[in-house]
Amino acid sequence: MARRLQASPLLAIGPAEPGPAIRRGALVAVPIGATLILELGLGDPTQGAIATGALLAGFPGLDAPAGPRAAWQAIAAPFIGLAAALGVLSSQSDVAMVAAMGLLGAVAGYGFAVSLRLAIFGLSIALALMIGQGLFLEPGDALPALLYATVGGLLQAAWSLTIWLVVDRGAKEESGWSARGTLDAFRANWTMRSASFRHAIRFGAALAVGVALYLLLDMRVHGFWVPLTILFVMRPERGETYKRLALRAIGTVLGLIVATALAEAFPGDDLLVGIVLTVSAALAYGLLTVQYALFTAAITTYVVLLSDTLSEGAFEAAGQRAAGTALGIAIAFFAFVIWPNPGERE
Length: 346
Description:
Elements: H1 2-6, H2 18-28, H3 30-41, H4 49-57, H5 66-90, H6 94-109, H7 116-134, H8 142-168, H9 179-188, H10 195-216, H11 225-233, H12 238-265, H13 270-287, H14 292-309, H15 314-338
């Protein structure tokens, strides 16, 4: 029984080694902590937008050394800003929200045809769209969203570039990018027989359904947790997706408990909240390739605490977030029941 428990997905560690992964996560979280001091500690009206841009830009190239990572982040920054602005604009119409999320989700999902790194690049941009939509801001906020999110992403890239110049400049680093190889992979997978192509369609459709469902159920305040869950758990393979469904549920419950307890215990303490947010971001980066349930707990803690700081009560919203997670899990599960990959019906 002990051996089975140790081998279970909940306790499984890897593929990355915890020590180096968490150290890298702590480095990538530094720009988030710096911007949180500005936005929370000094009461800046950006209200976490720059820190959110830095958070999202930290995921592309996360597994790469500092030099290539800076390049991935610099390229991602303007796309994250544009997606955030598109999210604000599309949130003015329910139809536009569903269509934008479905189309961008499909494009992001197709990144799996090339590599996990490119897929994470696309998922980060789709996440920026999702957050922009879920805030339901006025059209006039689209330009600030574009600027703040882009600035946050560029700060993240500048920090990685600084690390490369100061520490890693002498090391030989390969970017791992091949434009010809990428185009060849896209062409080769442009068929219904490809798991990556089917995933792109399934993923975009599931995200669109998630957005439509939370609009229909009038879950506008915290409804983005439905597509957020789908974005984090769905992978081209049914087995990997189902494993993530279970770990997502466990991690979300753990993160909600921790974040709600902290928010209720230390109301209005922006300094402490900023520290916890920075630590949560560092753990999220570090645990992404180490332990998925713990990654989910860390990113849930970050989102809940940041929302609570922006006057969205953590305790009152915990039930809505749990319901959104449950709906997202159900959509991701039935997406494979309705349209599985060839050979996955058994």
